[in-house]
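Input for the complex:
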Amino acid sequence: MIEAKIKGKMSYQKSYILELLGYFVVTGIDFAAIYFLFESFPAVKGWSLWEIVYLYGLGSSALAIAQLSGEVLEDMSLIIRNGEFDQVLIKPISPLLFLMPQSFRLDRFARLAQGVLASGFSFYYLNIIFSWTNVALFLCSFFSLIIIFISLFLANAATSFWTIQSSEVFNAFTYGGVEMSKFPLTIYKRWMQVLFLFFIPIGFVIFFPTSILFEKENLLNFPKFSAFLSPFIAIAFFGVIWVYWRVGIRHYQSTGS
Amino acid sequence: MPLIRVENLKKEFRVHKTSGGMMNSVKGLFFSRGEVVNAVDDISFGIEKGEFVGYLGPNGAGKSTSIKMLTGILVPTSGDIVVGGITPYRDRKLNSKNIGVVFGQRTQLWWDLPPIDSYKLLGKIYRRPSKEIQLKIEFLTELLELQEFIKSPVRKLSLGQKMRCELAAALLHSPEILYLDEPTIGLDVVAKDSIRAFLTRLNETEKTTIILTTHDMGDVEKLCKRVIVIDSGKIIHDSSIERLRNRFGNHRVLEVEYDEFSEFSLPENVTTVKNIGNRFFYQFDSDKIKAPELIKRILEHNSISDLSLVDVDIEEVIRKIYHEKRTV
Ligand SMILES: Nc1ncnc2c1ncn2[C@@H]1O[C@H](COP(=O)(O)OP(=O)(O)OP(=O)(O)O)[C@@H](O)[C@H]1O
Ligand SMILES: [Mg+2]
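Predicted:
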């Protein structure tokens, strides 16, 4: 499927090259933005510059992977409206398996590279040693975040089975969550903390593993093992959204021709 | 037991009057008020293997909605559907291996890919051995004459070329049943003919069961052996095509051009439909008076320069059925 997608793209050779050029320009601007951001923020609530670079890198790379696998779900209302979803449902394949590979976009690798670079540098400057625990802590955050972002895309898509317009609700959480994840949870107001710990657990899966990785004292009164609960929390979150999606498909109304 | 069995099938749509804005659509999510449209309203029928059925009805009658329930796209509000022993919306994937579907206004081919690539992908989705798919592609290419454009991207194909490619795509996995929702929409006469010839062959030699919705009575006349007519979600007619033709008597029309017309009394059961100068159109019921008899009567009174005999076309009959329903 991915192969087909690239092949399809290749058939517009000129626009393809232009698009690639576009990726590089955008990435360049992004990097400049990070630099200026950090110039004006030396440290936040006991978190150093490089610790925040790590948060940024973690968020961007997880988002990039989530987008590479599930971004097409953002276009669900369009897919429903132009009848493509009808076509999906008459094939012997699960709709997600059919649709998700279409998310593949080369330009997302720019974001991924940027995220990986940012976390790599921060590890280097923070002298984080390469131990099993540290790798596990990083992976806990990373994979849990990917699962949560994909779940949010899925929630967004499932919502379009009921109403074409309200799909922005979950988008707000996804991209709001990305912005939020760039800074430690402790700087936010109480209600924001509660929201991102228990309802949209982006904060949960970033904050606890990262705090332990950087040996922070303030864990908001949570036990240390919360860090390793992250993957379970993420999977539970996905489970709930999955049920919502299944209910949505049964409720699917198609379009009047 | 019939291949397709439909019993007391209903589909309601709830139509919201949303006035836009996020708050309103969130409200719409939780408080499902709004009007109910009975798109399909308690229909039942059975279709045997190998039948070629025309599924007709005016715009908004519920044809597409029915097809979507038969194919497993939509979950019925109530009632039963069993297709080859399977309930489509429950065993959607299993059912989909058994059916081919063409929606005339949609495409199942990848827009940027040439059809041949789409076919290979579809072969993988249906999990068929690539050898088998290769042979099937060659076979369908031959029959549907796709050679010239099978390697150009779909977005560059004409409507007629695209429709032929769609048909091939729907048949790659050799389904037992083919659902066609307005497959001839927008096509020229030649393209229609080639598609009709292909469908006839498919039905006759491969015994594929075909269910066709169309607004083109030429399709019905040339293809269908049975006709189901629905209106406002209810079945208003279901019979063989011959029975349909005879529903309003076995009507035929005789067209006569007189050298010079002089008044005479027509036999019983014959009516003048219209006349243009010396050209007259007589309608008669051939169960009650035979054509030669009528012609003889005419020649007794007048000399004529030309004459032709036509059956009442299906279009007229269908129009009457739609109309009858409306005025009841
Ligand atoms: N997704 C939908 N949501 C709401 N109403 C719908 C939907 N699909 C169909 N309808 C309504 O259901 C009725 C039947 O529609 P359907 O598309 O089945 O008609 P049709 O017989 O295929 O008509 P046409 O000949 O115009 O294609 C119409 O009143 C239509 O407005
Ligand atoms: Mg229709």
